[in-house]
Write a structure and sequence with these properties.
The protein is α+β, with helices and mostly antiparallel strands. The chain has helices at 5-12, 19-24, 64-77, 90-99, 111-125, 167-181, and strands at residues 27-31, 39-42, 52-53, 59-61, 82-87, 140-144, 148-153, 159-164.
Length: 183
């Protein structure tokens, strides 16, 4: 699904196009797909930084600019030969936070609690000392350099994706992640 402004503007001319109704609700369509996997900018208040959402108001990114950089990061992450990923359910995320003595005020943790754990994980446990990328937001963490790319999404629970070209580094990180995420 890619932004296609030309197609979207043509569709706005169609009286039956649902985007007109969404626009009246403060949602501007910027990416349209026939499967109804659309993306919108929330444009309710002038002082708001628009939030990218889907039609069900699910959060994607803190702004359209961050959304574009996050998509570019996904492309950058694909250039590496090796990839590791690990994810949790809400319940296992809850157990993971408690296992490492992080606050967990609700089942699965709040966004702030999960992000605090992610920052600890990256610096202390995985020994990735690179700075967090500026285009992260309250639900997405990004870190990278010439040798690796790391993304963590905490929207539902935790989803960590690490990419690199060094197979030894990948295997080392796999072992660390297995140790940390095992129950």
């Amino acid at each position: 699904m890619e932004p296609n402004i030309h197609t979207i503007l043509e569709l706005f001319c169609d009286e039956d196009f649902d985007a007109i109704e969404y626009l009246q609700q403060g949602l501007l369509l910027f990416s349209y797909h026939w499967t109804e996997a659309h993306c919108f900018l929330r444009i309710g208040k002038q002082e708001d930084n628009p939030v990218v959402t889907d039609w069900k108001n699910h959060y994607f990114a803190g702004s359209f600019e961050k959304y574009l950089f996050q998509k570019a990061f996904n492309i950058y992450q694909e250039k590496f030969k090796h990839k590791s990923s690990v994810g949790t359910s809400i319940n296992s995320c809850d157990a993971l936070l408690k296992k490492y003595s992080f606050p967990c005020s609700v089942c699965g943790g709040t966004a702030e609690e999960k992000m605090e754990f992610v920052r600890w994980l990256v610096v202390r446990s995985l020994d990735l000392h690179e700075k967090e990328a500026w285009f992260g937001d309250e639900l997405n963490y990004f870190s990278y350099n010439d040798h690796y790319a790391l993304s963590v999404n905490i929207y539902h629970s935790l989803l960590l994706v690490f990419s690199c070209d060094d197979i030894i580094w990948k295997k080392k990180l796999d072992a660390q992640l297995n140790s940390i995420f095992s129950q």
